[in-house]
Here is the input.
Amino acid sequence: MTALLRLSTVIDATTAFIGRSVSWLILVAVLVSAGNAVIRKVFDTSSNAWLELQWYLYGAVFLLAAAYTLQRNEHVRIDIATSGLSKRTRDWIDLLGHIFLLMPFCLLMLYLSWPYFINSFNNGEISVNAGGLVIWPAKLLILSCFVLLTAQGLSEIIKRWAVIKNIIEDPAAQRELPPMIEELQSAADLDKRMKNK
Amino acid sequence: MIQIIAHNLAPIMFVSVMAMLLIGYPVAFTLAAGGLLFFFIGVELSTFSNEIRLFYPLIQSLMNRTFDIMRNDTLLAIPFFTFMGLILERSGMAEDLLDTIGQLFGPLRGGLAFAVIFVGALLGATTGVVAASVIAMGLISLPIMMRYGYDRSVATGTIAASGTLAQIVPPSLVLIVMSDQLGRSVGDMYVGALYPALMIIGLYCLYIFILTIIMPKKVPALPIEARPLGGGVLSLFAVLALSIGLHYALYNYVFGDLRYETRFVWSATIATLVALAFSLANRHFKLGILSRLAEQVIIVLIPPLALIFLVLGTIFLGIATPTEGGAMGATGALILSLIKRRLNLTALKGALDSTTKLTAFVMFILIGARVFGLTFYGINGHLWIEELLLALPGGETGFLFVITVIVFILGCFLDFFEIAFIVVPLLVGPAEALGIDLIWLGIILGINLQTSFLTPPFGFALFYLRSISPKEDWDDAVTGQRIAAIKTTEIYKGVLPYIVIQFIAIMIVIFYPRMVMHYKDDEVKFNVNDVQITLPSLGGDMSNGGQNGGLPSLGGGLPGLGGGLPGLGGGLPGLTLNPIAPPAQPSTDQQQNNNNNNGGGLSLPGQLNLGNQPLNLNNEPPKIQ
Here is the structure.
């Protein structure tokens, strides 16, 4: 179990690092997209490569951060029916959900995305738009997404099992506030502003 | 037995997957897993029912579906507007606005409530994030309203409702997602939403106005000591009148030969700039022509107006696509908070981190919904839904009324992304069969989804307001009075009248479609978006036309094409769309197509891809320019 938990820690650290790093690409995408509009207007020219870069960046963000989002327990749930159940029951729901809902989907997508990527890579597939970007890295992103998500799923299964067996404390702490408020609070001085009013 | 299951697989699947969602496992993965489970059941049962058009190789199309989601330019607007909203929240713009506008309206009964509605609308017009508006207004206005004796329910209800205006006033995320799912242009959706949004703001104000007459105690005016800026409304009116006059003159005489929206944006911009320059000069050189109040009001209006110009102005001038408008706005918000020195690295990181996680879960719901859709459309689930909805009495009105009620109920439990990605695509077919304009439908659904932010127990606006309003009694900093904590039931009670108002607004839009349909009068002006209008309806026609043999209304261009294509049937739809699909995959798609085209239905994979993918059709136009 210790070895598994160590594996889970390594996976968590990796996906969190990747998730946090790719979030900067949003800033890059914002600047690229605004720049595209300005350049098109001012210089009356546009490049498909730069237009495609926008969705490339965005794709990288949401695909590579999906595992991180799972780790932080921020994929939305409909919990009207289950929020009243005991913590233990909800732990079991999570564990079974990871095994029977998340994993089959991830493994299937993994199985499908490898040939999808490798075909594109071997053909040197390039965007149909004139001056567009190479396509295979985008397909590699899909593959990487499901590699990360599968790994994170494994880590979640280990952690949930350990929680049920009382080996570790629940790492996904219960929160009272909506995620967005917590983020704002941790990011900034919302706490101070709330007290000052 | 198996026969019965095979023939009723669509309803069985729908109900089972909805039940699976209630387990409380993340929606995205539950949807995907449910879709896959029924995919395999469907393939195994396909010999028992010719309505099931599923076969194993079809599963490969999931890759192209994921890739199409990735390439969707429209959805890029989600992170842009979210990020903009979070940064704007940091910039303190909302606080400045509320403080000043509150003092401007303060002397009136209900003035603070009007100010909250006005600022909510203004924030709504700059960004599309409810959380940011509600947090700012809850932190700034709620304590002041409590201090001066506002009714607690009226105060909290008004703040929550005004915060949701961000979702119906363009540029809103709801409208962007709606136009994406309905396959129409975002520009049209914005134009269509303009009057309904103004009407809703008007109805909110009317409600407060009625309160000031029948229950004035609930909405008192501010005493003089709460208004350090003093009076001087007259000079504000003078500046307002002058700039409107200037705008009118520019509009008619200087820019007379430009296109309608270009004229409007330029003359309004110049008139505003003149007013701003004047009040800045007044402050800087101490001219004393304007009152302090007027000067301050005009100056705090600079940032939001500049942002509105950056986002909506550039979109309507045709400089930016709606997505790029979001990026312009985000850049503007960044610059604004840098100028005000309100942005540090931690705050920026926090905003990026939140945006990342939000987009990841939103996009995964979409991916999950696509997996679900692959199976559901493959077993003719969309036809089952269509039959159900078309069997409703009352035709067009009956249909709109029923979906309003359904979406309203769903909105109490689901968040709007889930409704938009799962339910809305299913409504396109029946709506087109009834000849309902999709923009009109989109606006009606948009107001509905806006309402879902307000409905207890899961309305997000309530959630946000609850989390920042005091849970314990507190001593007011100014008056020293003991003020009781805000109860959740008070918030619920407060939003109730606003939910009724939302319902009235939806009914008005249903019975006076003109309010939205005027977007068609102006169609010529959006030449960029014209391209986007025709393409999706072409897609829609090919999928529907094949089955109905009919020709749903084409809303504009290409009347000849729609009639021609369905007749061709066979493998053609796949072929026709090749330019849009990435080159590698269609060959496999077509092979499957040919292998499996055993006469049961028309062109399976092609059709499936088309049915719920107006998306990628929609994205190409910017490149055409």
Confidence is low (pLDDT under 50) at residues 524-625 of chain B. Chain B touches chain A through 92 residues (CB under 8 Å). DSSP finds 31 helices and two strands in chain B. The two ends of chain B are 57 Å apart (CA to CA).
